[in-house]
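the two lines:
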Amino acid sequence: MRKKSLAFLFSVFFIFFFAANFKQNSFDKGNDRTLPLRRQNQRLAYKGIPFDSSQVRFVPDEILVKFKPSLSIQAIESTIKAYQSKNKGRIPRIHVYLLQIPEYSTVEEMVFVLSQNPDVEYVEPNYIFHISVTPNDFYFRYQYALSNTSQRVAPVDIPGAPTGKLEADIKATNAWDETLGTEEVIIAVIDTGVDLDHRDIKNKLVSSGKDYCNNDDEADDDQGHGTHVAGIAAAETNNDEGIAGVAWNCKILPIKVFDKTGDADTKDITEAIIWAADQGAGVISMSFGGKVGFGKNVSQTIEDSLKYAFNKNIILVSATGNTGEDIVYYPASSEYTLAVAATDSNDLRPSWSNYGPEVDVAAPGDWIVSLYPEDLSIPLGFAPYAWWSGTSMSVPHVSGLAALIKSIKPWLTSTEIMNIIRYSADDINSADNPGKDEFIGYGRINMKKALVPLLITPSQSTSR
Amino acid sequence: MILMFICSPLGQSQEKSSNKKIKLRPELSFEYFNRTISWDEEKYSSKLQSFFTTLTGELEVKNGVFISGILGYSLSNFDSLAFRKLPFSVELDVGGIEGYIIGGEVKINCFSVKEFEIKGQGQIVYSFGSYEEWPIKGLNVEGGIVTGKPFWVRAMIGPVITYNKYDKFFPYLFIHFNKLWGTFQMEEKIKDLNGKENKKIKGKSNFGASLGSIYQLLNFLSVNAEATFLPYSGGLDLGFTASVSLTF
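prediction for all of em together
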């Protein structure tokens, strides 16, 4: 029995030293700095999965190994087999092997074990790096709506462009620290279609959509409005081109119901809403509206389709109107939609933004740069981007935010997501109209508050 | 059970040669640890800092076998723990959360080699945090609150090697398998928005070593100081304990 006890002690010693000597300095760097880095807003996101940039991330079942040059290929292959790993390929020139480790093992263990092998020059995890949270898109500098640095909102050769006011924005860059959205969340844009070949969105389209004007499956844009709206919501981002979309990784489903004149009828709109819902849209962006009903501000046919989509847990977003009247256009006035008014680069309500008790929130809609169809850019070859204003431009900012929330919290209902957007908005006109008001509703949307964890501080806490 | 298996034959042999006598040893101890915990399927990590003061009553149930009951008060800090499954994600920055400690400990004398005495030791402590309520600030609606309640368990087992060369000073090394796990229940209520999240946490390190010494001031009074080192892949966690014990 004494031998048994000694064996036990020896095992404990061995295990302890194994753990204590687990040298993975490359892993060490992040963890202890977690808190300070987080406080500096260095959190990033990867494929919609929130993560902390201070944490080291790597592919869970892969490692990179460089064997000593003296080792033959046959010897390398048999070494890989001996570790029950699979050779997934070799990086030429530097002769580094990508290995898939056995299922029962972890990257940490394999890195440790292989580092003890004298034939191994170095071994490390297949680290995951990530994109910069500030996108490199050329026109991002003019997107005050996403990040307002008091910049001029358009190039100097565009006359009349105002300058912005610091932080009069929707805090997109802070929110992108948390998520960039997921491809699974589709934003259906019911509008004039989308330029299907536009360089800054063609890769973001889930399909060529549906065209109710020409009764085909090519929702191409011959007007420009839909392309502009779709770009704001989810243009291809961080591609050294054009603008940044609110929802980097979410997809766009183009639906054309408005022809060149900008008109569409109830039947087509209704069918488009139902079709979008049936195609799996998570958000339906409706940058249109109108006065309807003989005394009632509702079209019962469209209302039924909105209810149909809402019951499928889809978030419906619509524009209040651009006539400056005290009426919220339909379908924004519907109980099933988020009614979106406009703000400008100084966090003020433009006089043309319609208002009324149905207004839920506001978003930047003045001097907004976004995509313009390449075929319509005059003179031909001119950069296919344009600055437009309207509550139509406010809507896709909110649609993008809804898509991001749905990306990281797919279990939430549309009512819950609508309430998150409402309650997190900044009450920017609280000096004159504290609380929810008919001009900007709950306020200008704030993506950071809606997405990034709110800090819970101890004041006034009570224990039970 | 493990300790009994390893050490009981030796303990029994000691028993035969010793007088049967029940001893009671009350101990007041103060412990602090700073432990790296992981959560959300190890996607994130943060620190759990806990300070607790306990009263331990130790009984020598037979020669070389000691059983203790532990009761105490704890203050546990889970700051940076984030809850992303609630409608509004929240991150704790609330400092220490009060709670109480219940636990038990077993020590079994195994054998001696020259001046070294080998014991087996196992301990489990449960920390039940109080249910606390905090307001959610920064939203445009009033009255939003989160309520949370932490719970953690620490279990450690391993051999203690004590150097008995000196009369009143006993340095020792305790090498232990050391597991920490727990949950943090959080509930959110903001007007008509409600959500619940039950977050599982676990300590990153599983093995550690404690270096300490017991100084016997008087025949019935001794003081103990101990430093604990818990390595894990990526860092090292630390803990400190100080205690005063009486022997009757």
